[in-house]
Amino acid sequence: MHAIYRNFISALRFNKTAAILNIMGLAIAYIVFATIYAQVDFANKFDRFHPQVDHIYRVDCKTPASVWSVHSRLLIDAFVSTSPYIQKSTLINPFIGECYFTTDVNGNQTGFKETVQTCSPDITGIFDFREGTPDCLKQPEMCLIPESLARRIFGSISVVGKQLTAEGNIWTKDRKSLTVGGVYKDFPENSQLANVVYTTVSPSYQYESWDDYTYVCYILVTSGADKNEICSAFARCFNVEDAPDYKEAEVKLTNLADIYYEPVTSQMKFIKSGKKENMNRMLMVAFLVALIAMINYINYSVALIPYRIKSINIRKIAGASVARLRCAQLFESVVISLVACLPAVLLNLSLDIPVLLRLVSLSLAVGFIAGIYPAVSATSISMQMALKGSYGLSPKGLALRKMLIGIQYVISFTLVILAFVIYQQRYMESRSFGYGKNRIAVVVLNGKTVGKIDLFTNELKKYSGIEDVAFSSAKVGAEELYRGGGAEKNNEMMYFHYLNVSPNFLSVMDIPVMEGRCPRQEDRQLKDLLFVFNRKAKEEYGLEVGDRLITYWKDKGMVIGITDELKINSLRTGAYPLAFVINEKNAGMPVACIKIRQGADMEKATEHIRQTFKEI
After folding, report:
1. Is the pTM of this model over 0.70?
2. Angle at which helices 353-380 and 16-44 cross, to 10°
3. Cα(539)–Cα(216) distance, rounded to whole angstroms?
4. What is the spatial distance between Cα 602 and Cα 605, in angstroms, rounded to a whole number?
5. What is the DSSP letter of 578?
6. If you average pLDDT over every residue of the chain, what do you get?
């Protein structure tokens, strides 16, 4: 051990900068690996803390065109009643949102906002409501609240029995006043269950409706139950005539632990989700970083061989065996790797013990692998080579060094490319384009239908799932450049691209007006053109709300609004001045933008749109 310590200190003195940089490189690599691996482990362990996770499933419906996870109460009850293997079931309404409550805290009325979800009482028998009073939900006036809410509002005083009075109605519940029946320990972030106020749904709420797509259903099955057999039993027993919308649908069960990696449609944004491919890429990045650090460490160890040859041969002459010398070299390499791993462990003490053990195991493996070749090589050099010259300058030594550096460069370039791909993908997923894309169906009308847009709109709105219909002269987000135009402002020409749109276009597309106002339906009757410009046009031409314009075509117009920055063209093209134009002659607008109501069944809405278009 003393010899190992002396060799390490001697190598450190030989080239302090190289030694410190290599140890720091290993340390940084381990920190990066631990950070990335923790994120991957977080995603892979979604909802696995529930004791019965292997027997908990979400009920989904699928057709060749789509998959959905929100159902009516009638369908849920029909499914649950068809199989003896289903022990318990619960429905959850995740669409209620925040409610404003008032309550008494030490004699003072206190108000707060909190998200509410209505459910079935059996929810506490399926999921792990730790440290709560689960049976309280069997009483309709009771509710369960998370520990974080109890501490935030009530502090350390007893919460059970406290009255919570909602300012407005709680959707799917016929009472405003709730009594706290229990407090449950907050669910971790990697759980589909939210830390909200849970209370039971009213038994009679929309119980006779097949079209109320509001509830997510979870079931607990018996041990050894076959999920395919459960679905087959429902298919055999269910009368499709009762619910024609399910004629082509097939029920499937998704295990709770698998939900995170399942695709999520736009109407199911309340479900936490991720992509397995992204996690695999991140894990690959973590291992590549560790591999680069290992190769760098091998290179450093090989560079030390000429310096250590003399010491090794002296110890050989003194009687030390080759095996002992090699073990000493390996042990030194492993110890250095473990020392470099120490900062990563200290910075991630909050991680699970298995994750930390994997990190330590990686450092042991890196130290062992990085030490094998230098240990074997250094102890295999003959006395003649040691006395004759430097091993590092020999053809074999140079070839090895070049090969290691080459591998290091290849892995580094691979790592950079992989990181760029991940960044680009996340950028595309998170980037705001300045307008709403979810729940928007786009239909290009033909010549016959363009002349019947009022009839087309009225027929579409007969289906309750259609919220509104707007029209434009071109598809938003589908073209590099849009129609160009120009106008004169205070005797100065300005040039811009534009879309003719209906007055309700901005509200349908969720385009906020930052200055001025949104167009209104009565604006159709005005003779002058009305313009809503984007921020780029304002900055480039100094536009203000109320500015008067005269277009190329000698039409008079006025600026009524300024939007924030919009990206309706390709990301390859920079932002340019853009106008939305509203006037009485807005006839050339063949593109219908149809907004589908939140919670509506996307497949049914799409089918209604197709049928309406076909009929008209």
Report:
1. no
2. 140
3. 47
4. 5
5. E
6. 81
Give the number of other Cβ atoms within 10 Å of residue 231's Cβ: 20
**Amino acid identity of 122?**
D
Q: Using CA atoms, how far apart are residues 341 and 449, in angstroms rounded to an integer?
A: 68
Beta-carbon neighbour count of residue 252 at 10 Å?
A: 15
Q: How many residues does the chain have?
A: 616
59 pLDDT tier (thresholds 50, 70, 90): very high
Taking the C-alpha atoms of residue 121 and residue 135, their distance in angstroms, rounded to an integer, is 8
pLDDT digits (tens, 9 = 90+) for 62-84: 877 677 888 888 888 889 998 89
**In a 3-state reduction of DSSP, which class is residue 116?**
strand
Residue 379: phi and psi, rounded to 5, are -90, 0
Mean per-residue pLDDT, 90-117? 88
So what's the pLDDT on residue 266?
47
Burial class, 218, CB count within 10 angstroms (exposed 0-12 / middle 13-18 / buried 19+): buried
Show the CA angle centred on residue 47, arms to residues 44 and 52, nearest 5°. 120
* pLDDT surpasses 90 at 92: yes
DSSP 588: -
Q: What is the pLDDT of residue 571?
A: 53
Q: Is 200 in a helix, a strand, or coil?
A: strand
Degrees, nearest 5: CA angle 468-471-477 = 105
For 31, list phi and psi in degrees, rounded to 5. -65, -45
Tokens standing for residue 471: 């029209």
